[in-house]
Amino acid sequence: EFHLPATWQISKENKKRHIVSKDTDEYKSIFNQFDEAMKKGYKKIIKIERIQNERWFMQYTAHWTDFKKRLNKDTEKRLYHGCREEAANLIIEDCFNRSFAGVHGTIYGVGVYFSSNAAYSHQYTNPNSLEERCMFLVRVLIGKTTKGNGSMKTRPLGFDSTTDGNHIFVTYHDAQAYAEYLITYKSK
Question: 10, 44, 132, 181: most buried, per Cβ within 10 A?
């Protein structure tokens, strides 16, 4: 049965971005994960927003259920995706769209790239006019992985994603990832 996360705030105007209050456990948890993953390589977090896109969350949940049945285990990881502010706005509305794949290269395949290393994902952010950068903390279904290469236009048969064998994961289905939080921060 499908359930929305307990942290979600239901709004009549169907707002997709909700600022997470600094005094909540939710904020502290995301802050600590980001702080540890960035290894102090930033000046300060401006805000953390919870993304509430019910349609994309439902599709992601359906994929999660399918992966769990098929693989007999949970292969969800929380990974980072750094991008420009304009791209972040598109991701919030339309999730991760593979038609933009390849903007920053395709060394491990032509898909959407995520990393467990926030400092690595930071390279793909660009500061806005206020010197603020955007990075998503994303729920990603990696499923069964294999080493990727630049000639891969999609995942090889029998696999769900490609990887560098370390911290980079590439997905090939839009509903395989859900942008859960957007972290706006300033770098050093």
Answer: 181
Give per-residue pLDDT as tens, 130-167: 999 999 999 999 999 999 988 888 888 999 999 999 99
Amino acid at 71: L
Q: Say which CATH topology domain 17-186 has.
A: Phosphoenolpyruvate Carboxykinase; domain 3 (3.90.228)
Question: H helices of 72-171, where?
Answer: 85-94, 118-122
**163's torsion region: left (phi>0), alpha (psi -120 to 50) or beta?**
beta
In whole angstroms, how far apart are CA 157 and each of 13, 108, 116?
42, 16, 25
Q: At 177, give phi and psi (nearest 5°).
A: -140, 145
Domain edges within the chain: 17-186
